[in-house]
Amino acid sequence: MEIANFPSLTGEEFLEACHHLDGAYCRAQLGPLRKRWKLRLRMAAQADFLFQDVPNSYIEITRPLDPEDLDIDLEILRKPVIRKDGAIVCYEIHLHPTYRMPCLWFQIQGLDTGESQYDLDTVFRYLVPEQYKEGLRRYGGIGGISLDNHPVKGDPWFFVHPCLTGDNMSAFKCQISEYLIIWLGLVGGCVGLWVPRQMATIK
């Protein structure tokens, strides 16, 4: 399917992109990783939070906070490993009503008592690889990481501001089936979200 106003998405296009990403996850040969890196297509129950032409479906991805539990190349992360047994990171992909781009929301859950999941320093300490830190701090809230009320759940979550995503995506003219895989490759890495390579090769 062609995207009518690439890289912007309509609600229908975003929903189809979500189904393609969910399908890639279901078909990928992930082995034991599937128990730890989980992707689900969700539907929001609270429709009163939703905007016009923003679907109530979204993608949820959860993974252990400890990158060693994912069996990924820690050299790629270029950051010290901080073990947090039992803690997870929950990521959600929603369509932003203004920018008409996917927006990545995330929250660290299950931290030890005394550590705040709403502290930006906590996010930088546990999620942001070293090579992204300077750029994200320079951008601040606009173009970087912000804390706001979740568009559906209402409680505070962090999100990667989508204002620059359109320019970055414009270099990748792609079909709707590839859209979210490419988008995650551009956006997810700065907060520790990496798409398993088995999904990226699914046609």
From TrEMBL:
<keyword id="KW-0072">Autophagy</keyword>
<dbReference type="Pfam" id="PF03987">
    <property type="entry name" value="Autophagy_act_C"/>
</dbReference>
<keyword id="KW-0833">Ubl conjugation pathway</keyword>
<comment type="similarity">
    <text>Belongs to the ATG10 family.</text>
</comment>
<dbReference type="InterPro" id="IPR007135">
    <property type="entry name" value="Atg3/Atg10"/>
</dbReference>
<dbReference type="GO" id="GO:0061651">
    <property type="term" value="F:Atg12 conjugating enzyme activity"/>
</dbReference>
<keyword id="KW-0472">Membrane</keyword>
<dbReference type="GO" id="GO:0032446">
    <property type="term" value="P:protein modification by small protein conjugation"/>
</dbReference>
<dbReference type="GO" id="GO:0000422">
    <property type="term" value="P:autophagy of mitochondrion"/>
</dbReference>
<keyword id="KW-1133">Transmembrane helix</keyword>
<feature type="transmembrane region" description="Helical">
    <location>
        <begin position="179"/>
        <end position="196"/>
    </location>
</feature>
<keyword id="KW-0812">Transmembrane</keyword>
<dbReference type="GO" id="GO:0000045">
    <property type="term" value="P:autophagosome assembly"/>
</dbReference>
<keyword id="KW-0808">Transferase</keyword>
<dbReference type="GO" id="GO:0005829">
    <property type="term" value="C:cytosol"/>
</dbReference>
<keyword id="KW-0813">Transport</keyword>
<keyword id="KW-0653">Protein transport</keyword>
<protein>
    <recommendedName>
        <fullName>Ubiquitin-like-conjugating enzyme ATG10</fullName>
    </recommendedName>
</protein>
<dbReference type="GO" id="GO:0015031">
    <property type="term" value="P:protein transport"/>
</dbReference>
